Amino acid sequence: MGSKIQTQGLDLHYGKFRALLDVNLSIQPRMITAIIGPSGCGKSTLLRCFNRMNDLVKGVRVAGRVLLDGVDILGPATSLSLLRRRVGMVFQRPNPFPLSVFDNVSYGLRVHGETHRSRLVPVVESSLQATGLWEELKDRLDTSALDLSPEQQQRLCISRVVAVQPEVLLMDEPCSALDPIATGRIEDLMRALADQYTIVIVTHNMQQAARVAAETAFMLLGELVEFGPTLGVFENPKDQRTEDYVSGRYG
Amino acid sequence: MKVSPATTQRVAVGFMWTLAAITFAVLIFILAFILAHGLPHVTWSFLTESPSSMGREGGIFPMILGTLLVAGLAVLVAAPIGVATAVYLTEYTREGRLTAVIRFGADCLAGVPSIIFGLFGFVFFAITLGMGLSVLSGSLTLALMVLPTIIRTSEEAIRAVPYAYREVSFGLGSTRWQMVITVVLRSALPGISTGIVLSLGRSISETAAVMLTAGSALRLPRSLFDSSRTLALHFYILSREGISMPNAYATASVLIIAILALNLLAYWLMRRFVAKVGR
User: Is-contact A227 A245, C-beta < 8 A?
Assistant: First the structure.
């Protein structure tokens, strides 16, 4: 099976600061890959290379290659709109727009030119079903998304991404604003979504990586220190730095 | 002697309460004074008839229409330019020398006395461009005058839109333009409208600039190239030339009530804006 995303010699600078150093990583399709590491190690930066969200930041320079299904996405020929449709992103804080539930979920489709309500309705329904929100919200599609609980909001944000039928879901610490019970349920959701989507999750929480991820990457100071099946990274790390981190000696 | 903190607290609160009360009292006094003198003369026929004998008799209908035309057109011209400038400054450029220069220019423009705008409008629009003393000259001059206000209030409103909304919109594949339309302007709209409504109020109450550009014709304006007297200018001429103080006060009452209504509208929009973005 070919990898879904592959980085080759990926370097990234913020001005003079080198945030990623020669990262070589390949992410397998239809499973969950976790990126762990202490704050500032570059894990979010790496995640944001996969849908080129770093382009929004001033003074960023990227070198190397990022392949999506074998095609380099870093070149100027890449349509960012299309790329981000294929590679969706869920952010740290639940961040629904101050719009209705329906308008939130259908936002991406409308951006991509689908305006007929009759064609939006089924997608909104299936996207809410995919995240387990449909039963709770089917009678409240016109209420403001801001009135939902934090967990519902984060599920809604996942529905909003799922609605544009991406191939990859990038999740940047998706549970850090949620309580442990909600976190557990979102993790269940992630496992369910992994049947259909390639999921890459950045997390602070090592237990979370151990619970959900098939493969785990450990990063430190912009370097990919270790990468492999999650069990191996946690129980039998090859690198001393990985062992120090997963055993809680720092970070 | 040592004063206890509780005492200083009481003194401070009392002091601030007094100052606030004075401010409010001044406002009430001015309003009551003008309305008491003016409202008895504000009748239906005063609002709907044309003036006769220079405004000593008759009503103010042409001035109401002239004011609406001049101020409305001014805002109609200034709002798109101002909002577009604000969007450009916040979303399409990085902070740098150019944005600093534009912003500094807008701030300077905001500090220019309105009579200077009037003089410029007179020389440029009325004479150089041959528009004469007209509704068009007046409204274009006012548009220049309120432009900085619209730019700065729109900018503030746009900046208050959380960055996360922009990120999500980009993340779902929006182009920058789609992001601006669907997220930024949509969320900032109440704040932007507040600035526009306040500008409308300023245009309506402006006197010096319209005197030099829109002229003071008493008849009903029939086209944008006709001269037209605004309410504020009518009040000025009635009182300054001693034509009719009762009618001057009545005109002032109409003007004040219109401005109050606009300010209430702006206040209401602002509260809606805070309720929306503030959560």
Answer: no
Q: How far is B111 from chain A (nearest CA, A)?
A: 33
What ipTM was predicted for this assembly? 0.91
CB contact under 8 A, B174 and A161: no
A69 within some domain: no
**Closest among B181, B214, B199, B68 to B145, alpha carbons compared:** B199
Whether residue A24 lies inside any domain: the answer is no
Q: For residue B103, is it within any domain?
A: yes
Residue A98 in contact with partner chain B when CB distance is under 8 A: yes
Residue reference for tokens 């009635």? B238
Q: Which run of H or E residues covers position B98?
A: helix B97-111
What is the domain extent for residue B233?
A: 44-277
The stretches in chain B having pLDDT less than 50 are 278-279
| pLDDT recorded at residue B279 | 44
CATH number, domain containing residue A188: 3.40.50.300
Counted domains in chain B: 1
Residue A216, helix vs strand vs coil: strand
**Residue B264 is assigned to a structural domain of this protein:** yes
B168 touches chain A (CB under 8 A): yes
The strand pairing partners of A198, in sequence order, are A168
SS3 call for B28:
helix
Provide the strand spans (E) within B100-163. none
What is the tens place of the pLDDT at every residue in B40-76? 999 999 999 899 888 888 889 999 999 999 999 999 9
- B220-229 burial, b for 16+ CB within 10 Å, e for fewer? ebeebebbbb
CATH code at position B77 = 1.10.3720.10
| pLDDT confidence of residue A2 | 81
> pLDDT tens across A52-73, in order?
999 888 889 999 999 999 999 9
Count of domains forming chain A: 1
Contact with chain B for residue A60, Cβ under 8 A:
no
* CA–CA distance, B231 with B67 (Å, rounded to integer): 6
